[in-house]
Write a structure and sequence with these properties.
Oligomer: single chain
Number of helices: 8
Strand content: 15-25%
Helix content: 25-40%
CATH class: Alpha Beta
CATH superfamily: Alpha/Beta hydrolase fold, catalytic domain
Radius of gyration: 17 Å
CATH topology: Rossmann fold
């Protein structure tokens, strides 16, 4: 994996977001903002995210990655972070990318798909990788995973808001639970091309995703082990091939 060509901080409200930019050697006509998964899932997908940034850079596209506030090297405390603030941080990063190139592609993974759709940023393309129907569904999955870990380890779960060391406040939980990707997709700009990439055994989207499916320009299914919930780093060439294949190469 290559070293980012530039790293630094982007201001988003009162928070400083640590960002990495992978710039191509030639002129920049397009930027791609990669929004990683949240919490433990970010570590699982990190290798795929970084390699994707490398490949986009090789294709002549400036790729940007960042840490949400309260995570990684960004400012803030995770337990004080909120979903609304993270949405605003996607908007701030998108604005920064817009300064670099006239065309923008946003690529969001897992829970970040909820945030990216809610952000409704004006962009040429929005790709949702392993999207979630709602924040309520996502938190249910995290709660279930917490209980299974507690039972397997024979220990009590003392803090219901602690997910693998990542603290979720009640305010953040409430905001996440209110997010619904099918409803929020109505806020997207008409000019934005929406692509959906489903990872796992599914062969079709659930019936209650109809509005999102109708809004999408393409829905692709990758039948491989999901990259979340893994115990180690995991990378998916299939995801990278599909995303990069949709990118115009300059």
């Amino acid at each position: 994996m290559k070293t980012p060509t530039e790293c630094g901080y982007v201001q988003a409200g009162q928070q400083s977001l640590y960002a990495s930019f992978y710039s191509p050697s030639g002129g920049i006509e397009q930027a791609a903002l990669i929004c990683d998964p949240l919490f433990e899932e970010r570590r699982c997908a990190l290798r795929t995210s970084v390699r994707l940034a490398d490949r986009l850079s090789e294709a002549g596209i400036c790729a940007a990655r960042f840490d949400y506030s309260g995570t990684g090297d960004s400012s803030g405390i995770h337990g004080h972070a909120t979903a609304h603030a993270w949405v605003e941080q996607i908007q701030a990063m998108a604005a920064e990318c817009a300064r670099l190139a006239p065309r923008l592609h946003i690529i969001a993974m897992r829970a970040s798909t909820l945030l990216a759709v809610a952000a409704a940023v004006s962009c040429e393309r929005l790709t949702l990788v392993a999207p979630l129907k709602s924040g309520k569904e996502y938190l249910h999955q995290l709660d279930l995973r917490n209980r299974l870990k507690s039972q397997a380890g024979g220990i009590a779960q003392n803090n219901a808001g602690d997910f693998g060391g990542f603290i979720i406040s009640q305010e953040n939980r409430t905001q996440l639970e209110a997010m619904d990707i099918v409803q929020d997709c109505k806020k997207l700009q008409k000019e934005t091309t929406l692509d959906i990439i489903v990872v796992g055994p599914q062969k079709s989207l659930p019936p209650d995703w109809k509005a999102l499916e109708e809004r999408a320009s393409s829905v692709s299914f990758i039948r491989e082990m999901p990259f979340w919930g893994q115990t180690d780093y995991f990378e998916s060439n299939a995801i990278m091939d599909l995303i990069c294949g949709k990118q115009p190469i300059h």
